[in-house]
Amino acid sequence: MAQREERGARMLGTKIKKRRFGVGEYHRMAEVGILGEDDRVELADGEVVEMTPVGWRHVRAVTVLTQLLAGTLPGHYVSVQNPVVFGERDERQPDLALVRAGALEGSLPTAADVALVVEVAETSLLYDREVKVPLYARAGIPEAWVVDLEAATVEVHAAPGASPGERYAKKRTFGREEELISFTVPDLRFAVGDVVGRG
């Protein structure tokens, strides 16, 4: 018994090494069937992370935003829950992204092809705000939104890399009764209540 406890203590004191995957390896997992089409996952800093299930409010917000963003920026398409490559070990699936049209020919878009990203948070607020938004800032995405369905607000972040820690320098939160005005996309404005619901 004492030997088993000693062995267990030694194992607990050992540093566990994680095997991180690159984007190419991640794609090969799908090609050989390790990951299926119905798996809701993304590659986050080399780790395959399961994404949270979506409810009806999330679906509604994404659908409404898709219509509101369509055609707002010439030469860009609205990409809905599709992958964007952010680095050798990062391929995320923002809920929405305004992606340069030419980037959709022959390869997946990269951060340099994205003008705006949107994350709709029903159960994932902390992850979206504390993990994804800083990643988008480090990658140089001009503007990132977090739609907080519980609080009925939209956080708008802009000016990446202009503050310590490579976070966004500008942030404004728009409430249900307000009109959202984009920092970076000309003439992009709409009633927040149309997205989060009227209460």
UniProtKB/TrEMBL annotation:
What the entry lists under InterPro entries is as follows: Nuclease_put_TT1808, Restrct_endonuc-II-like, Uma2
Top-level taxon of origin: Bacteria
The segment(s) forming the Putative restriction endonuclease domain are 25-192
Q: What keywords tag this UniProt record? A: Endonuclease, Hydrolase, Nuclease
Q: Pfam families, from UniProt?
A: Uma2
**Spans through the membrane:** none
Q: Where is the signal peptide?
A: none
> Which SUPFAM superfamilies is this protein grouped with?
Restriction endonuclease-like
**Any idea which GO molecular function terms this record carries?**
endonuclease activity
Q: How is this protein named in the record? A: Uma2 family endonuclease
